[in-house]
Every structure is written in structure tokens, then in C-alpha cells.
Amino acid sequence: MNPKAEYMKKQQAMAVQLTAATGMQEVLKTNLGPKGTLKMLVNSSGQIKLTKDGNVLLHEMQIQHPTATLIARTATAQDDITGDGTTSTVLFIGELMKMAARYISEGVHPRLLTDGFELAKTESLRFLDEFAEPQEDIENDRELLYNVARTSLRTKLPEDLADHLTSMVTDAVLTVKRPGKPLDVLMIEQMEMITKDAMDSRLVRGLVMDHGTRHPDMPKSLKNCYILILNVSLEYEKSEANSTFVYSTAQERDELVAAERKFTDDKVRAIVDFKNFMCTPENGKNFVVINQKGIDPLSLDMLAKAGIMALRRAKRRNMERLSLACGGIPVNSVEDLTPDVLGFAGSVYEQTLGEDKFCFVEDVKNPFSCTLLLKGPNQQVVSQLKDAARDGIRAVKNALEDKKLVPGAGAFELAA
Q: Is 369 within 8 Å of 321 (Cβ atoms)?
């Protein structure tokens, strides 16, 4: 046995567990609801975080007691599955433990209490199916979905900001919903911008990328654009195997360098020729290339001279979002360039904010991907918006998938 282990009797051990549960309840109970208070968290490096989101609190708090840790994990598991309800879970567990303490003090065995909890859980789940109100046409009822999201967000943000974000979140989920396919909320990009006021946040029915062009002569804003989504390297690459070039004269060296460069230049010329074929002075169309791989300075210069706006090293997750937003098909070889692979956007422009560049792809026809552009004067406000938006998105998603709603304000708890 561990000589440093603490030994305590049954009653003492039980009292410690109950204290842990009620302690967690005391910490979080002031968070609940629209009138809940913010908590200030200070980490070891002195950074401050203000939040009233139970999930963020439980993740950030350093909990030592094993029972309290178990309760925190239960609550965060609830958040992972449904997207909300962490504070309510902790308060409910704390209240159950308080009730259990009263019966245990009267001599009831803990095993009987746990069996009772299991029976109550089974009966509550059965009653929940009867109590929930079916909403078969919920997909077409934006007002109802708006109210669902607002119920979640008003507990986390000031009222005017919550209502503004609610409208954004509801429209975002309805945008990415595709008929007959599972709802994928990962197609909603959340982009942060440290600027102005939180009320300037908006929904972009398209995509916002956190990088811009890398050539000074490239156009910064284009209208009526064909979008070419590429996964082709347009830069000089070293060979995968160790290799050496052997030459005897300066002319031979120049020929070797030119041959190496020609491989990349041919791919760029194929793109430029394709652009000239698709974009004529008569149709007034422009051309944008978004590449997942690199584009070297010489290739960028060739594209800039052709009037093409090119972005390199786009994130992999954005490639799928781009094809859903603009309607294009990612291309893995310049030999596959046909009009069918192109997407379309009414407006593509670059915006510079301090040292950061953002590229906006907007005015797309039938977007199944969108971006929540979250703005705030500092990182603290933006983080709060991001946590709240996540919960709102999950609330709308759950309503669309379950097609059932439960009246709020404790109605279910009282009825059960």
C-alpha cells in the first residue's frame, strides 16, 4: 500500500464527493441564463479571459478533485454531442447530489439511490419523446430556427449582439444545408478580424481566406470572375531522389536551367492560354486562380502580366468549401482544363488590415458554403463571439435534424 495514501471512513468519503459536486454547482450557478454573470479566468502566463460559457470555463479551470473532474467531463461530453447545456448539466448533477445526501443521512443505501436515478432517467427519456413537439416543416420556418438560436445565444452575449449573431448563424446553417444530404456545419468557415466593433460582424455567402495575392502588380479587385481551383505545383521543385547535373560548359549549364524552368513555365502558359480562351473583351469576364500548392515569383509574374489574380497555398479545408461555394471542381493537372471545371463569383477582392491580408470571394450563385466574419476590437471579444457562434450553429443543426422542439424555461423539468 502507498504509505502516503489518505484513509477515510465511508461517511467521510461520501461527504467529500458531495462537497465536490456542490462546489462545482456554486461556481457555475451564477452563469446560468441571460442574467448570468461573466467569469474572469487568469492563466499561468497572466492572460485574462472573460466568459460565461460553461464549456469554456470547465476546459480552462484547473480541477484537482477526481469527482469534480468526472462531473466536468460529463458536462463537456454533453457539449461535444449537442453543442450546449454544460452549465445546466453541472447544476443538475449538483442538485441530485444534494438530494442524495439527504436520503443517505436518513440511512438509505447509495445503491438504492443509483437504481432510482437509472429508473428516473429511463422514464424521463420516454416522457421526452411524448412531450417534444414535432416540427415536420421546420426547414422552411426560418423564424422558428431563429428563435431556437436566439434562446442559446442570449445566454452568452448582450441582447443586441446576440440578436445580430442569431440572424447570421441561422442564415449560415440554412445556406450549407443540401437537400437529401447530411448537414455538414464544417462548411461554415469562421474568420476572425480584430477591427472596429462586434456589431460589424457579418455573414459572407461565399468564402473569406486569410491570405492575399503575393505580387504587387496583380489586380486587387475583380468582378464577374471565373474561379479555377488548382492542386498543381507552379514552382521549381527539387527531385525526390538525390541527383546531380553534370555539365562541361557555361552554355550546357544554361540549357539545363532553361529545361528545368520550361517544365513549370509550360504549366503556367497552359493556364494563361485557357484564361485567354475563356475571358474575352466581349464577355467581360475575369480570371482567378486559387492554388493549394505553391506558385513561385516567376510564375506569379507571368500570371500578373496576363491579368490573372492568383492565390497560393490555400488551406486544404478551403478547397472543398470553395467548390461548394463557387461550383467549381478542383483540378490536379493542367491537362484537365475545361470550361466545366470552372466556378463563378460575382466579386473577388483583397482587403488589407494592418499586416494581415484577406481575400473575399462573394456574390456566388448557389452557395453551399459560407463564412461567418467575426469582428471585434480585441481578441477577447472575438473569442466570445466564436464560442457563441459555435453553440448557435449546433442549436439550429439539432433542431433541423431532430425535427422536434421542447418548450423552454424549465417546462420539461416541471412536467417530468
A: yes
- Residue 160 is among the residues annotated as catalytic for this protein: no
Taking the C-alpha atoms of residue 178 and residue 368, their distance in angstroms, rounded to an integer, is 7
- Does residue 87 have an active-site annotation? yes
Helix (H, G, I), strand (E, B) or coil at 149: helix
pTM of the model: 0.76
Annotated catalytic residue, options 51, 67, 86, 155: 86
Catalytic residue among 166, 170, 264, 391: 391
Chain segment 175-188, per-residue pLDDT in tens: 888 877 888 888 88
Whether the Cβ atoms of residue 366 and residue 327 lie closer than 8 Å to each other: yes
Would residue 200 show up in a list of annotated catalytic residues for this protein? no
**Most distant CA atoms of the chain, gap in Å:** 100
Q: Which residues make beta-bridge pairs with 50?
A: 40
Q: Which of 268, 245, 275, 248 is nearest to 257 (CA)?
A: 245
- Are the CB atoms for 347 and 223 separated by under 8 Å? yes
Residue 275 has pLDDT above 70, yes or no: yes
pLDDT of residue 34: 73
Whether 391 is a known active-site residue: answer: yes
CA dist., res. 400 & res. 177, Å (int) = 9
* Alpha helical stretches, state H, 279-314: 297-305
- Grid cell locating 293: 500548392
Higher pLDDT, 51 or 4: 51
| pLDDT range class, residue 376, cuts 50, 70, 90 | confident
52, 36 contact by CB (below 8 A): yes
